[in-house]
Every structure is written in structure tokens, then in C-alpha cells.
Amino acid sequence: MADAVASIGDGAVVYLGGNGALSVPDLTIAALAERYERTGRPRDLTIVHTSGLGDQRGSGTDRLALPGMIKRTILGHYGMTPRIAAMALSGEIEAYNFPQGVLSQLMRCVAGRNPGILSRIGLGTFVDPQLDGGKLNERTTEELVRRVEMDGTDWLYYTLPPPDVAIVRGSTADGDGNLTMEYEAGWFEMLSQATAARNHGGITIAQVSRVAPNGTLDPRRVKIPGHLVDSVVVHELQPQSLAERFNPAYCGEARLSDPGYPPQPLDERLLIARRAAQELEPGQLVNIGFGMSDGVPGAGMDAGVADQVTFTTEQGAWGGWPVTGVGFGAMVNPTAILDAASQFDFYQGGGLDIAFLGMAQADAEGNVNVSRFGKNLAGCGGFIDITQNARKIVFCGTFSVKAEVEVSGGGVAVHNPGVASKFVKTVEQITFSGPEGVQKGHSVLFVTERAVFELTAGGMELVEFAPGVDLERDILAEMEFRPIIRDPRPMSMGLFADTGLPLAISADGAGG
Fold first, then answer.
1. What burial letters (b/e) apply to 406-430, b meaning 16+ CB within 10 Å?
2. Which one of 207, 211, 331, 496 counts the least CB within 10 Å of its CB?
3. Where in the chain is the domain with CATH 3.40.1080.10?
4. How far apart are CA 58 and CA 34, in angstroms?
5. What 3-state DSSP class applies to 175?
6. What is the pLDDT at residue 500?
7. Nearest-CA neighbor of 496 among 293, 263, 267?
8. Span 271-326, pLDDT tens digits
9. 21: phi then psi, degrees, rounded to nearest 5
């Protein structure tokens, strides 16, 4: 490990492989941090990766959160690395947040020595230069994204510095450095990162769990050719993810008869998931986001409709059961695993029928914030890539912050309205642009435990409310704007059953 990281110099641009808690080259990252603590080198690194590598407990990129070690971060997500997020918020480092899919495609672009990419992903959001340009603090000044016009259409032009070092992850390497990923839950951007380092005169360090003799690897399984690899670090106890040692169902080594979702009590979280799951229709291609929305597959399974749709994750998996919690991004029983850039080609091109995502704030125009609020910096992750072209979007979240509500067979009782409304006059940061969604004609719903709203050309409209709530006291008085109210209907009583969601409940919420 020490030999592998010894040549990384001051000011280096370092691309890190993996995604979230999955396939993190954690031992090598730890060696890099140990070298800095011991020698004070390398300093002023630029760290680039598509998602927050970590478990929120100090692993992954957070190991590098040492004074003077990092100069700049260009990340898709900060939520799994609270120490790095704190450095970005305080202005201790330069910090950018770009859409995860755009970063993934940028790495592929850098590998081909192209100067940047044109994309409409991010228009109208905080990464648009007309707003923040993806910059997270005043210390961050360089423009890495520009708004340009081509043939009468506005685009965003993204650029990314090429890597001096790529630190990637695999399962097996042979003596020539050929790399397979048979035990990984995804391929992510590993090949693009290694190619980019090679083509720009940099080095690639690959962390694996074992070494095989030359000539024994199945070439169909080799994801990175050995010519792109300079050093191999062997970690015999390398975990599949930071969440669990190994699950063979994540990589096709075994198939499970059940995804193993834990039983959920009848509370606001289950109610939101059940109501959101009513939007599932047979044959749909579905994305499930991190957080509140990850309960939708389980609710759909209870309803008997989950096996009639195809779930996908932005990390590249298709056709299985999305994993919840820290292991998010993996899939139980996937039928296919793509590299992340190709998955985002599909998403950004409008391939998704429906996406279920979280919601921290929403305003009267239908703008949504999930990336930065108060002292919290989560980052956008794949949220912007997913929401800009999905045909239907269902945002899931509790109605307010730290409310006390009781969900029972009779409906919802609000005992304490909460400390802050999520339906605000103006969101702190625009991660989804409501006006852009209206212009594209997308169907957009906001599902909470008290009410359901729909985005219309005139703004947010209240379309459903939970039995048991007082419309004025529990909903309207707790919003910083007044929604359109025409003919809202009660949420279906079947949603409040103690057991699984009844099959008789129709998608319009009127059945039961």
C-alpha cells in the first residue's frame, strides 16, 4: 500500500472509483491518508468522484479530510462523507457539486481527451451558471460549467481536470494487472477513470482481493485491461461494500427468493411508500432514489405489482430489488449491470417511465431541494440526471420536519406539526426546476403523509389529503404558500390497513 501511493505528488488530481459504500478502495485511501499524516505529503489534492464514498462513519473519502491535504473537491454527492461536507460548507476547501451522471460521462469524455461535454442536464438548477454554477462556497471561483447557446438552444458545457492518479477497485487481478469485477455490485466509472489516467500520463492503482496466475482470467470478465494498471494493492479481506462483507445476490453469484426487506410498522414512512407505490403500472421502467423513496419496492411487493415493473438504479443495475440504507445502489438479483455512464445515457435520454425520489423542500413553483438545506450538505447525486427527463416523477417526504403524527386504520392524527415546513416560499437550493418540468410536460407528484400535491402550469395543486387531518390547521397553515385548491379528494382508506397494501386499490387513489 505504501509503495502504491508513494508517487502521488502535491497538487495531484485524484479520481476515486466506487460509489457510495460500494466497491470503495478503502485500504488504499487509508494508506494515502497515513502517508500524509506521517510525512505531510501529498498536499493540495483535487479529489474527484461521482458519489460520496463512505459510510458516514469516517471511511472512504472522509479519511482524507485532513488540514492541508485537499485543495478542491468535485463530487456528485457529499452525504456519505460528513467531514468532507463540513470542509466544503466552511470554505476550508474549494468545492463543487455536479450531477452524478454528468460527472460519470465527463470521466468517459476525459478518457478520450475531449475538452468537455454539452448537456441540458442541470439547466434551471443550482449547477446552472445563472444560479450557482455548482460552486458550494465563496472560495470556489473557477468556472467549470458554462451556459452556451447552440442552434437557438441553451446548453451547459461542463469541463473536468484530467487525473494524475486513478484509484480503482476490482475483485481479481492477474500478474499483468488485468482486472475483473465478478464480486462487485457494479462497474461504475472504473474503466473510464483508468483510461483517463493512462491517456493523460497519470497512473492507476487498483485494489483487489486476490491475484490469479496469468492467462487464467476469462477475458469476458476483464473490465480493465492490464495495460491501464500500474500498481495492484491486494486486500484479502476486502468487503464488497462498507455496509456488509459479501452478498452473492448483488453480483449474480446467487439468487434469493426474497429481497429481505424488514417488516415496516404502519407509520408515516410506510404510508408515503404505499401511496407512492400506487403510481406503479405494469411494464414500467423505474428508478428508486435514496432515502424516503426506497420503501416503494417493498410497498409495491405488498401490493403485488412490484414483479410487473423493472427497477433500476443509477449505479447501473437492472431488474432486481433495490437495496436500502447504506448499501444503496446495489441490487438483489440483478438481471443486468451496466457501467454507470451508459446507465445515465439511458436516464438522460428519457428512458425512465417513472422515478421515485426524496424531497427536503418544495416551493410554490414546484422547485425541489434535496442537495443543501440549513447546515446540511447532501449534494445532488444522480437526482438532477434522473428528474430532468423521466416521464413521471414522484417526490416522497414527510410534510414537515420532526412532526409527531400517528398513522392508524382511521387515517392520520397530527399531534405536533413539526419544527419547520418543507413547503417553503423559496427553496434554499434548486435541485429540480419546477418550471422546467412544466415546460417539458412531465407528470410530477409530491407525496407526504398528510397530503398529495401535483405540479400544474399554475403551480402546486392539492389533490389529496389524508383522512383525519384538518385541512386548514394541519396542511394549509403549515405551508409558506397557498397551493391551488379545486377539488381535493381523501387518500384511499386502503392505504391505512395494518397489513400489505390491498390489490384492489387503484392508481388514482379512489379504490379500496
1. ebeeebbebeebbeebbbbeebbbb
2. 211
3. 2-234, 268-496
4. 14
5. coil
6. 54
7. 267
8. 999 999 999 999 999 999 988 899 999 999 988 899 999 999 999 999 999 998 88
9. -95, 0
**Catalytic choice (184, 189, 268, 314):** 314
Residue 302's SS3 state is helix
Instruction: State which fold the 2-234 domain adopts.
Output: Glutaconate Coenzyme A-transferase (3.40.1080)
CATH topology classification for 268-496? Glutaconate Coenzyme A-transferase (3.40.1080)
> What are the residues whose beta carbons fall under 8 Å from the beta carbon of 254, sequence distance 6 or more?
248
pTM of the model: 0.95
Question: Rounded CA gap, 487 and 506, in Å?
Answer: 19
Q: Enter the C-alpha cell of residue 218.
A: 476469462
pLDDT tens digits, one per residue of 217-257: 999 999 999 999 999 999 999 999 999 999 999 999 999 99
Which run of H or E residues covers position 4?
A: helix 2-5
**Catalytic (active site) residue 149:** no
By DSSP bridging, strand 336-337 and strand 317-318 are antiparallel
pLDDT at 305: 92
Phi-psi sector, 355: left (phi>0), alpha (psi -120 to 50), beta: beta
Which parts of the chain register pLDDT below 50?
503-512
**Tally of CA atoms within 13 A in the half-sphere of 58 that contains its CB:** 3
pLDDT of residue 44: 98
